[in-house]
Design brief:
This protein is α/β, with parallel strands linked by helices. The chain has one domain: Vaccinia Virus protein VP39 (Rossmann fold, 3-Layer(aba) Sandwich). It is built from 8 helices and 8 strands; from the N terminus they run αβαβαβαβαβαβαβαβ. The protein has an 8-stranded mixed sheet, with helices on both faces. Helix 1 packs across helix 4. The longest helix has 14 residues. 38% of the residues are buried.
C-alpha cells in the first residue's frame, strides 16, 4: 500500500554517491500492519529526507534524553527498552516497511509516548542532529555484509563511527551487537581505534540484561552463532 506523510520530512547534505549501509526493503504486510501504518503514521512517523530539519522536543512533545536506534527491525527490542525506560525518548530508524508498521502497532498497543519511527537512512538522520545531542545510539544486528567486496557498506567503520560518536553527549553510550563473529571482531577493532570512545569492558561486554532477547537473536543462537555486545562511552 502507499501512504502520505503529514509530518515534515527531514534532509541533510551528504556526500555525493554515498554508499548505503542497508538494502532498501518493502515487503508484504499483513492486514494488521497495513492498518497500523495508515492509522498511526501521522502520530508517530517521519521520513528522511526531503524537507527541513526537525526538533526532537517538538517531535516528542517534551525535552528528554534521546536514544537513536539504527535498524529497529520488527520493533520488539525498541518497544521493550522504551517501556522499561520512560524517562528517555527513543527514535527508531528503519527501512523495512513491514517492520515500521509492526513497530507502530506495538507502540500503540503498549500506549508508549516515548517512541517515534523514522523511515530512511540513519546516517542522514544523524547528520541533521546537532553534536553532543544524544544520550545513546543503539546498533543491534546491523547487516554484516559478509562478502569482502561489500565491507565498505558496513555501518561500523571509521567514518561512520566518527559521526555516531560526534552526536553523543559526553558520557553517552554507543551499544552495538552482532551475531557475525568476523564482524564482531572488526567492530571491536574499529571502535577501540576511535580516540573519542572508551570501551566499558575489556573487549566484548557481558550480555546486558537491559537488551531484550529477540526472535532474531534466538534464531542466531539456535543456529550456533553466539551474540557479541560492545558498549562504549564518549569521552
Amino acid at each position: 500500500m502507499t501512504y502520505t506523510d503529514p509530518l515534515p520530512a527531514v534532509s541533510a547534505p551528504h556526500p555525493a554517491r554515498a554508499i548505503r549501509t542497508f538494502h532498501p526493503r518493502r515487503g508484504r504486510m499483513s492486514g494488521r500492519q497495513a492498518a497500523a501504518l495508515e492509522q498511526l503514521w501521522p502520530a508517530y512517523g517521519l521520513r528522511v529526507p526531503d524537507a527541513a530539519p526537525f526538533d526532537p522536543a517538538g517531535l516528542f512533545g517534551r525535552r528528554a534524553p534521546l536514544v537513536v536506534e539504527i535498524g529497529s527491525g520488527m520493533g520488539d527490542t525498541t518497544v521493550e527498552m522504551a517501556a522499561a525506560d520512560p524517562d528517555r525518548d527513543y527514535l527508531a530508524v528503519e527501512v523495512h516497511t513491514p517492520g515500521i508498521a509492526n513497530l507502530l502497532d506495538l507502540v500503540h498497543l503498549r500506549g508508549l509516548g516515548n517512541v517515534r519511527v523514522a523511515e530512511g537512512d540513519a546516517l542522514e538522520l544523524l547528520r541533521l542532529l546537532p553534536p553532543d545531542s544524544l544520550d545513546a545510539v543503539h546498533a543491534f544486528f546491523p547487516d554484516p555484509w559478509p562478502k569482502s567486496r561489500h565491507h565498505k557498506r558496513r555501518l561500523i567503520q571509521p567514518t561512520h563511527v566518527a559521526l555516531l560518536r560526534s552526536r553523543l553527549a559526553v558520557g553517552g553510550t554507543l551499544h552495538c551487537a552482532t551475531d557475525w563473529a568476523e564482524y564482531a571482531e572488526s567492530m571491536r577493532v574499529t571502535l577501540d581505534a576511535d580516540p573519542g570512545l572508551v570501551n566499558l569492558h575489556d573487549g566484548f561486554a557481558p550480555r546486558p540484561a537491559h537488551r531484550p532477547v529477540t526472535r532474531f537473536e534466538r534464531r542466531a543462537l539456535t543456529a550456533g552463532r553466539p551474540v557479541a555486545d560492545l558498549l562504549y562511552h564518549r569521552r
